[in-house]
Structures are given as C-alpha cells and as structure tokens.
UniProtKB/TrEMBL annotation:
One of its GO terms (cellular component) is early endosome membrane. One of its GO terms (biological process) is protein transport. It comes from Melospiza melodia (Song sparrow). Pfam families: FYVE, PH. Residues 152-212 form the FYVE-type domain. SMART domains: FYVE, PH. InterPro entries: PH-like_dom_sf, PH_domain, PH_domain-containing_F, PH_Phafin, PLEKHF2_FYVE, Znf_FYVE, Znf_FYVE-rel, Znf_FYVE_PHD. The gene is Plekhf2. Residues 238-249 have a biased composition (Acidic residues). This is Pleckstrin homology domain-containing family F member 2. Residues 35-131 form the PH domain. The keyword Protein transport applies.
Length: 249
C-alpha cells in the first residue's frame, strides 16, 4: 500500500500542503519514496502543562508543530526519524487518558489522543512504520532513549535533595539524564550526552556520580521508562510557554 502511494500525485499534493502549512521556516518534506500516512492533533505533555500539537506521520519520519491556525498554519517544526523511535503505552490517570510515550535517543515525551481508538490507530501505524523501516535497513531497534521530563507542576521541591522549595527566585531545572526536576545546587555539573547534544548538558549530582564511575545504566530512572503523570498536570494554569525543547533548563 505504502509503495503504491509513494509516487502518486495525491500523496505528493498532500505532502506539499503540509510543507506550505509550516511556511519558509519549516524543512522540506518531499523526498522520493516518502508517504504521508496520517495526521491529527495530539496533546503533548510539555514542561509547563499539556499542549495541543499537530502531528504528521510519514512512513519514515514523525513531524509535529505548534498550531497557529488549525489546518492552515503551524510553526516550530520538529522532525523525528522513525528508525530511532520506540513507543510504550501509558496507563490512564485522572484527566490524562489515551496516552503513550514516544522515545528517541535525543528526546522522549508523552502524548495523548482524544479517544482510545485514536490512540490504538496511532500506535499501530507508528509501530508498523518503524518495523518496515528496520526490516528494510537490517538495523535493530534503538535501546537508548532520552529521559521523559517530569512536568514542573509535579515538583514543589527538588526531587533529589527533597529540601529546596521552588520559587520565582529558586528556579526549577531538569536533569537531562533522569528527567527529574531539581534545584540549581543539585544540578551544577555538566556531562556530555552525545545523543542529546554536542556540548555537555545539565545533569543532577546523582546522575553525574553514576556516569563518572561508569554506572550509566543505573542512572536511568524507572520513572523515565514508565511515566505516570499526576492528574494535576492537566490543571496547571501557568502561561503557555514554548515547548521544553526550547528551554535551556
């Protein structure tokens, strides 16, 4: 089915429309063999609060962006190669339902669909695309993935020292290895995580000690692999900042 659509005029036209919706700031999406599988609005769990994002699933990449004008204009385009993607279902909890994790070596995050059926369709299509890509390339699924960031709203105090309370002056930071919300004194060190950045990134003292001694796998928090958000995440009324990927902390 995908091979038959690859060179069809309808597929080319659909991809061109997506390109135009992202404008000049977006990356070109039309390449030989690429097929637009589907699209839709998903709720992405961001650092400050859950936010609606437009997602486009192609047979080789997953693209998403901020909604400026529904069905007409999007910005802040993000492109994720599907070869590096693994997905895991998330149990329903409170107002956050029909969710799953999208995990890659560079970035991992949770998304939620409007219905259980929509969630099932998204997950099935993503898994099929990933399976087909790996089968064609002969590669194995990636075992490494970035931590899922714990939302700011779930941490009133530092998740490492359990003492420092967060205020407008004492800001929240995120460890890039475990995803925990930590205070400045608990995350003063930097460590090179090549899959995430070409420069050393902020990590907490706990992860730094483990990474420095070579115990890298022990540093990966279980929270990052089976993320279960608190219901209050969806009730946070903090102003709508940019996605956490645009934040330096």
């Amino acid at each position: 089915m995908v091979d038959r659509l690859a060179n069809s005029e309808a597929n080319t036209r659909r991809i061109s429309i997506v390109e135009n919706c992202f404008g000049a700031a977006g990356q070109p999406l039309t390449i030989p063999g690429r097929v637009l599988i589907g699209e839709g609005v998903l709720t992405k769990l961001c650092r400050k609060k859950p936010k609606a994002r437009q997602f486009f699933l192609f047979n080789d990449i997953l693209v998403y962006g901020n909604i400026v004008i529904q069905k007409k204009k999007y910005n802040k385009q993000h492109i994720i190669p599907l070869e590096n993607v693994t997905i895991d279902s998330i149990q329903d909890e409170g107002d956050l339902r029909n969710g799953w994790l999208i995990k890659t070596p560079t970035k991992s995050f949770a998304v939620y669909a409007a219905t259980a059926t929509e969630k099932s369709e998204w997950m099935n299509h993503i898994n099929k695309c990933v399976s087909d890509l790996l089968s064609k390339s002969g590669k194995t699924p990636s075992n490494e993935h970035a931590a899922v960031w714990v939302p700011d709203s779930e941490a009133a105090v530092c998740m490492r020292c359990q003492k420092a309370k967060f205020t407008p002056v004492n800001r929240r930071h995120h460890c890039r290895k475990c995803g925990f919300v930590v205070c400045g004194p608990c995350s003063e060190k930097r460590f090179l995580l090549p899959s995430q950045s070409s420069k050393p990134v902020r990590i907490c003292d706990f992860c730094y000690d483990l990474l420095s001694t070579g115990e890298m796998t022990a540093c990966q928090s279980a929270r990052s692999d089976s993320y279960s958000p608190s219901p209050k995440s969806s009730l946070n009324d903090v102003s709508d900042d940019d996605d956490d990927e645009d934040s330096s902390d």
